[in-house]
Amino acid sequence: MISYRGVQKVHRAIACIIKLSGADKMANLANARNKVLEAARAGASLIVLPECFNSPYGTQYFPKYAETLLPSPPTQDQSPSYHALSALAAEAKAYLVGGSIPELEPTTKKYYNTSLVFSPTGALIGTHRKTHLFDIDIPGKIRFKESEVLTPGEKLTTVELPEYGTIGLAICYDIRFPEAAMIAARRGAFLLVYPGAFNLTTGPLHWSLLGRARANDNQVYVAMCSPARDMSATYHAWGHSLVANPSAELLTEAGESEEIVYAELNSESIENTRKGIPIYTQRRFDLYPDVSAGRDN
Ligand SMILES: NC(=O)CC(=O)C(=O)O
């Protein structure tokens, strides 16, 4: 077991899938199914899909692809990704972090970028709505304003995977905010999972750096899972799904095309890293109990 808090130690295999997400939602779901089952056959017990795995990534696509998350089968047509992921986790008999999908909240009519987590029986055991929206403007390179369409989530997310451990779950731009990662680690997460879709400007600059940084800050595993690159799409994803270990070494990293990368996770690696460089227990929380106290805006 990987987790802390009194659970036994065993080793687990994670798979991060990098896959193309085109315009046809049902084709995207079918492609995801093939890849998840392939990862499960290869022995993965926790499988992660990319951000917006059922749609192209872009503000213009969110309303068209958005689903209301309705759990009961008669409404399956309204929530095809939800039901496909639930059935897939059960078929694969694995934990499944279903990347993310655009979500429509029916009462408020607000859109979110939402990740769903399923148990090996297909039960929904966690959800995360992207809390930090991707609003950037780098002149001549990339302008992206998720907030033109999306509403940010209002909670940080950890998910208990029974007999497996706790994971921290966040989406893409969320990784740039170390406070959220640290809170997940302090809640006992052994692994931080980020479905994400960096691009050809920010990917080479920061993707792997941020994955390794969050691993290093917290001495935990980090998994980041991206769509494959499609140069005919409006958004060019960086790709490079990866897993970093608690010492911030990359255990595996994909390229830009469809691929599945695998890594073995174990609790000894976390314990040994924390023994060797004990920053986890040396933090001076007495000096920084509330980081927001220092803000100037
Ligand atoms: N797409 C994102 O949410 C974030 C991203 O591309 C970046 O931070 O860079």
Description:
This protein is 25% helix and 26% strand. It is of the alpha/beta class. It has one domain (12-276): Nitrilase/N-carbamoyl-D-aminoacid amidohydrolase, CATH 3.60.110. The strands form three sheets. Strands 1, 2, 3, 4, 5, 6 and 15 form a seven-stranded mixed beta sheet that branches. Strands 9-10-11-12-13-14 form a six-stranded mixed beta sheet, with helices on one face. A hairpin with a 3-residue loop joins strand 7 (135-138) and strand 8. Helix 1 packs parallel to helix 3 (80-92). Mean pLDDT is 93; it is low at 1-10. The structure holds ligand LQR7VSFR.
Question: Helix and strand layout, with pairings?
Answer:
Blueprint: E1 12-18, H1 25-41, E2 46-48, H2 62-65, H3 80-92, E3 95-97, E4 101-105, E5 110-118, E6 124-129, E7 135-138, E8 142-145, E9 157-161, E10 165-169, H4 178-186, E11 189-195, H5 202-218, E12 221-225, E13 242-244, E14 250-253, E15 259-265, H6 267-276, H7 279-282
Parallel strand pairs: 1-2, 2-3, 10-11, 11-12
Antiparallel strand pairs: 1-15, 3-5, 4-5, 5-6, 7-8, 9-10, 12-13, 13-14
